[in-house]
Structures are given as structure tokens and as C-alpha cells.
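As a warm-up, study this chain.
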Amino acid sequence: MTTVTQRRRSAVSVDELKRAWQAVEAGEFRRSHLIRSEPQAPNTPNTQPMPATASTLDEPCSTWEAPPEETILPVLPCTDSLTAAVVALAIATASDTPARVVECGSSTGSDLAGASTAELGRHGPWIRGTRGTVLIDRVSTMLGTAADVPVPADPDRVLQLTVLATGWEFGHATASPGWLGEAIRGAEHVVLATTATVPGLRRLETALDLLDASQPIAAVLGPRRRKWDKAVAHSQGPLTRALDASGRLLDLPTDSDLAIHGPCSRPLPTSLTAAAASLLQLVTSHNLERELS
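Now compare it with the structure written out below.
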């Protein structure tokens, strides 16, 4: 995702990301640690203005808990936010239960702004629309970090599935304080959305190495598996191959129309929603096994 200001920084290793995430889970990392100021002389006012992001204009609540009957399914981008948004929309569309998509990225980079068939207006810091029976909520303000994402608005109906299109870089979202990071780390399942490319499969392997969720599922957007380039098939790492062997790596086929127009009011390809329905079956079957055990 592209933010308003980009700063040049050195690459972060997987080990560093793991240590950061372990610190989050241990409670050693809180929002207050994000703001550091230089020591000031006595009686010297602080003249540095705070950035006008959503967190300073309208401080969001840091915790959120969905009703017990509502399944929360985060979709994390291994490559770009558009891939995750398409996968999230396909999952909600394929659901046979009341569902919504919550797009958690900044308003300046929304991938679902044109996906609704009807707009329902603002609900606090969110803009709500519908697409058939699916609710789509997207942020109405510019955000600086994943910690700034406001708590989801109350739905106007009883839901059984909320799909979070996180929209933020994988390592940033998973280690983030606030309700979104907590929802990702506490989820029963996490969907890793990537593309059928060599970089896409490499980033999937990195995400699997960092992820500590018990049931990750990979959704690879692109052509059918049999049409993958040989270089793509050979780029799978050991964790990706193990995930594939367990039946939790699925190819979600797209078409040229979706590739050109992106998520819009046009129906999604039936092959895409059918594959998304298979993905949902993995989630529901595991949940049923857990309830019976």
C-alpha cells in the first residue's frame, strides 16, 4: 500500500519481524512506544506539530470484540492490497451466510470504492455500501498506520462472517497494536493472499515463516494451477509445499475483465467465487472439528 510519505529504510529480516511479533504477544509493545520525543529543557514548550492523521483527529478505540456467533477472517496481502481485497470480496460473496467485508486500509488507497452496487452513506468514520447481500465498509479518512484503523461500525443486520481486507504490509499489520493487530493474532484462521508469480510465492513463504497461526490458508490469485509458469511452480518453498500438501493452498482464478477493471459493480467470475467457496469450506470444516472435539 502506498502512503502519503515514504521514508527510505533498510531491509528488515524475518528474524527481526519474529522478535517484534513475540514482543507484541508478550505485551511489551504498546501504542505509547510508537511516539518518542527528544528530551526538552525545563519550561520549553513542544513546538513540533503532531501529524494530522485519523489517530490524532479522532482517536479510535484500541479494542474490538465481535459477537460470538460471528466468524472473523483476516485476509493479509503478501503482495499488494488489491489482491487481498479481491480475495476478501470473493470470500464474502461465496458465503451462504450473512457476510461483510471490512476494508481496513486508508481511504487514499481503497480498492473497493467501486465494488458496491448501492451506497448507504457514512457510519462514523466508515463508508458503507452493499453488493447483493454483502455489506462493504471502507474507511472514510486518511490513515498513517494500521494502528489508526477505527473500530468497525455496528452492522445493520446480524452477521455470521466478517472478512477483514487488511490492506497493510504483512509484517506491519501482524505486529500492529490496536484492534486490527489483535484480531489478526487471535484469529482461528488467516488467509494469505498472493499472486501466481515468482515474487508472490516467495513472499508467501516469508509470511508462512513469520505467521504463528495454527491454520493459515493461502489464496493464490491468477491462472489455474495447471497453467502456472514452471518458474512459479518451482519457486515454492518448503513451508508452501507443506501447506499445499495439507490441502490449504488454493488457486483462485481470475479473468481479463477483473484484471482490467478491478472490483466493480460487475459480477465476479464464477470460477473465482467457486474457489472462494472451497476456501470457506476449509474454515467451516475445521471449526466444526474443533466444536466436536
